[in-house]
Amino acid sequence: ISPFYLTREIKQTSPLLEWACIVHHVSECCLLFLLLCVRQVVLERVLGITTSNSSGLACDPNTGLVAYPAGCVVVILHPKKNKQTHILNASRKTFTALAFSQDGKYLVTGESGHMPCVRVWDVAEQAQVAEVQCHKYGVACVVFSTNSSYIVSVGYQHDMTVSVWEWRKGTVIASNKVSSRVLSVSFSEDNSYFVTAGNRHVKFWYLDASKERRVNSTVPLIGRSGLLGEQRNSMFCGLSCGRGNMASSTYCITSSGLLCQFNSRRMLDAWVDLKTTSARCLSVNEVFIFCGCADGTVRLFSPQNLHYVTTLHRPHCLGVDITQGLQPGHLFVANPEAQYPDTLALTFDPVTRHLTCVYNDHSVYVWDVRDIKNVGKVYSALYHSGCVWSLETYPDMDLSRSCLPPGSFLTCSSDNTIRLWHSDPGMVQGTSCLRNLYSHDLLRIVYVGEDTQHLQTEGERGEGGGMDAKSGIRVLGISPDGQHLAAGDRNGNVHIFGLQFMDQLQKIEAHDSEVLCLEFSPAETGLHLLASASRDRLIHIFNMEKSYSLEQTVYDHSASITAIKFTGVSPEVLMVSCGADKSIYFRTAEQSSEGLNFARSHHVVEKTTLYDMDLDATHTHAAIACQDRNIRYTHAAIACQDRNIRYTHAIVTGMRFSQDCRHLITISGDSCVFLWRLDSQMTNSMRKRLAERKQTAGVTTSARAPTKEHLISLLSFEIVSLLFQGPAAGTTALPAELQPAPLQPRGRWAEHLNPLAIRSVLETHSLQRPLSPTPRRKKKYPHCW
């Protein structure tokens, strides 16, 4: 089925969008694309930043708006109002650099990827007005000329191109090669030249000389290298031309921690030691030079003589407990033993005199520096610094039984943290989660482990530096009653947290490799189980009522297990799993004298690797996302394929609908979380159908989160026939005896359990089968595909 066909059908009937949510990884970006086509979803907020240096941070000199990239989105932030507007890249390439024009009306962006473009956007309309394609691999930095007539773009090191283009005509007027890696570019105040800086590289490029040689085509840029003297082997990672009385000077900063000044003859005139282990960025105005250094340090110098002025306050320390930041003075309490994130990027607003700082733990601060002796914080935000792997929304339940405020959701990342966010501005008070001084959106950070180095990103995007491949939290799961959170890490451990106090209750050494999926049994199954699966090919089933003791280990799969689901109503309960061995196993729960046991009932073999799986609202059909970009739609009871859907692949690691049906929350591998606001008609329809389901089932309040399988059934299922060209799937309600009973939380969840218990599944007496070695399986199993 072509995307054009889907788009046409969606414009005629929007219920198809809800049905599309039964798929997970493979079709999630496709779903967003389809929603955007009919304007039924609008990006409301981005919780993340992907800036790697000062080229990825800009400030409007007229309004004080701050712009930074978040993947393929440019976030335009109003710090005082905490409001965001967004520019989305239709090409879906990641933004790497950006800059405002002098009047603030336009924004120029550079991007990465094959054959990237330099684009100019109208800030007010958030629309593209011009573009040019003059690089091959990526754009490292961009800048407007002071009169906003020209744009300079510099490519990645292997691109080796610096270009000047007249953006209103869309033509490149001058270009040249540069063999060094360039990290920064700045225009002189009189527009006569611009300067590039990088690895053993400071070069002055003169536009007037290039204009004289221009006829009707692109001419070579005329460049002269700076005279570096003793600093000829230095890495110049920050650059800015002087302003006002010092317009003839150029200031650079080296990665070793030196602030350098070049005169009008391109000579290194003076330098000063910043007294830091390293430096990354600087910002220059007529009064101060701001130098971003290691350990959260920002030092101020005079541009006239490079005299030291002062050092600004540092941000939060690594591993900070943001729930303690309730009083204004908490941020400024010095801790000599604490570690702080390095300053990554700086930009200064000359009108409001606000300094925006981005740190390498992906935090953003806006400081008020009108009085350098009394610096205050205007805005701050703390985001994930690594790939966001999993997302769970908190169940909607009565406030007296709820551990978290309404609208809460949790994410986990490679930075070894679990973060609790909220999407409701009018957050209910009276819970253990209160607003803090560090972030408007973030309620709590849970640090898994004592090593805080995973919070800092190493190296720039695309380089060899990065986080430890074995670090981070891989998957999350919330118990049906909303009292427990299970988290699987990349070392094979399963952590159990109590959501009332967000404290760790147990740590189970469950697997030999990273945990890929966690699944709690739904309440309608009548069981209280937690299943974990890993890259080590094993499935462990734990009994929640027995302090997560091991009930059974299943070792049918011969490769990584990518998804597990429980389905059915007691006593007919099934567990379905799929994996990279191209197999889908269906197991039936059997109660014996030795306890609960899942016995294999069906085995289906596919021709492609299976990535993920989800169940529909009736828990009778499974949708399996496959490596060949197909979605297999399977009947869970008889294990036969019903239909096949083809979609395009996209990198989105997860998504969930919010409890109030107003937002769609998505997460991605670039460390960002996106909140999409759904159309009011779509929200009202979903709420109406949800209320009808509750009334039919005789349930007045629900303790289950309306995950994808719940929301699918909120709109008509008959539109599915448009896709399959066959009879529509039935929408008849389940018989009364099969309707799920109201979920009642068990009293023991309200009790604070014993202190943290760490144990291994190998020490559990309830282990019925050995964990290894895996026994030999038969070569073939019956299947129906």
UniProtKB/TrEMBL annotation:
Residue ranges occupied by any MABP1/WDR62 first WD40 domain in the UniProt entry: 55-382
Keyword Repeat in record: yes
Transmembrane segments: none
Domain annotation MABP1/WDR62 second WD40: ranges: 388-641
Keywords assigned by UniProt, alphabetized: Repeat, WD repeat
InterPro entries: MABP1 (IPR055292), WD40/YVTN_repeat-like_dom_sf (IPR015943), WD40_MABP1-WDR62_1st (IPR056161), WD40_MABP1-WDR62_2nd (IPR056162), WD40_repeat_dom_sf (IPR036322), WD40_rpt (IPR001680)
UniProt cross-references to Gene3D superfamilies, sorted A to Z: YVTN repeat-like/Quinoprotein amine dehydrogenase
Gene Ontology biological-process annotations: heart development; negative regulation of canonical NF-kappaB signal transduction; positive regulation of JNK cascade
Pfam families on file: WD40, WD40_MABP1-WDR62_1st, WD40_MABP1-WDR62_2nd
Ranges of the WD repeats in the UniProt entry: 508-552
Superkingdom of the source species: Eukaryota
Stated name of the protein: WD repeat domain 62
